[in-house]
Design brief:
Number of helices: 8
CATH topology: Rossmann fold
CATH class: Alpha Beta
Number of domains: 1
Number of strands: 11
Distance between the termini: 13 Å
CATH architecture: 3-Layer(aba) Sandwich
Radius of gyration: 19 Å
Shape: globular
Length: 289
């Protein structure tokens, strides 16, 4: 039977098992956006306890405005919790993490830089790479070219963003997020603006990159098919204040090809997750199963 945890409304999802190999560890984390809201006990996310294993791929889904992107910012140190503690790779998060890469719905490629130069950008501005960029530039260029070849952008190194399709731009954005070989990749709806065929093609590219390198991935998405195809575990968040109310382990075999998305097992999981989100929109509670 599939592993599934479902909690009633107003009772936050609790990940009770403390694992020694947890790569991301949220311990009783609450966040209010400012001191005034904190004084009013008005939280964007509340009482999050969550452990993500080394090399695990998780996806977070839920209604708009539920705190999915806020969770990402907490994980990478772009926001600090009002209460609680966050550990990543065994270390307390006290500021922006250098061991993470990020990609968003907008590729944000700099229009005056070529594809290759856009991918190299993090190595030019982030230590310790910045200090030795000139000395190791040939090595870094080779690394960037290899990444671009992996995602199907070989031959496009000298093209500018306006010469690339949306899917190509997003591939370059993912390469830029991975160029410094991060231990964790955070993706905030990176494929949301793409057509269905391009989106599925990029699912497979991301699947292959993760399979090869086994970095941790946290994917925020509104696409339930995307979450089930890619993730080891899907978490459903409630309406604001954000709480994890469902944990769904995806027990589909790997490696997963697109054909699996047409199987009853796959569609049943998607329908189950859709049911939870639909129930929360109406009642604030996931379906009790």
């Amino acid at each position: 039977m599939p592993s599934r945890t479902c909690i009633h409304a107003r009772t936050p999802f609790q990940s009770h098992t403390m694992s020694q190999d947890a790569f991301v560890d949220f311990q009783n984390v609450w966040l209010a956006y400012n001191d005034e809201l904190l004084a009013q006990n008005h939280f964007a996310v509340e009482d999050i306890n969550l452990q993500v294993k080394q090399g695990e791929f998780i996806a977070i889904v839920g209604p708009s405005g539920c705190g999915k992107s806020t969770f990402m910012k907490l994980t990478t140190g772009l926001k600090m919790p009002s209460k609680g503690r966050i550990l990543v790779d065994g270390q307390p998060v006290t500021g922006p993490l250098k061991i993470s890469g990020m990609a968003f719905q907008a590729s944000s490629l700099l229009p005056w830089r070529t594809t290759l130069d856009n991918v190299l950008l993090p190595l030019e501005i982030v230590e310790p790479y910045r200090s030795n960029f000139k000395q190791k530039k040939a090595e870094y260029v080779e690394r960037a070219r290899k990444l671009l070849n992996t995602v199907g952008l070989g031959g496009y190194e000298d093209k500018f963003p306006w010469q690339l399709s949306g899917g190509m731009q997003q591939r370059a954005s993912i390469c830029r997020a991975l160029i410094h070989e991060p231990k964790m990749l955070l993706l905030d709806e990176p494929f949301g603006a793409l057509d269905a065929f391009t989106r599925e093609e990029l699912w497979c590219i991301l699947r292959d990159l993760w399979t090869e390198q086994k970095f941790n991935v946290i994917l925020v998405t509104h696409d339930l098919r995307e979450s089930v195809f890619l993730a080891d575990t899907v978490y459903v968040m409630s309406k604001s204040p954000g709480r994890f109310v469902v944990k769904r382990e995806i027990d589909l075999p790997r490696p997963r090809d697109l054909e699996i998305t047409y199987t009853p097992e796959f569609t049943n999981i998607v329908h189950e997750l859709r049911g939870h989100i639909g129930a929360m929109r109406k009642t604030g509670a996931a379906i009790n199963q």
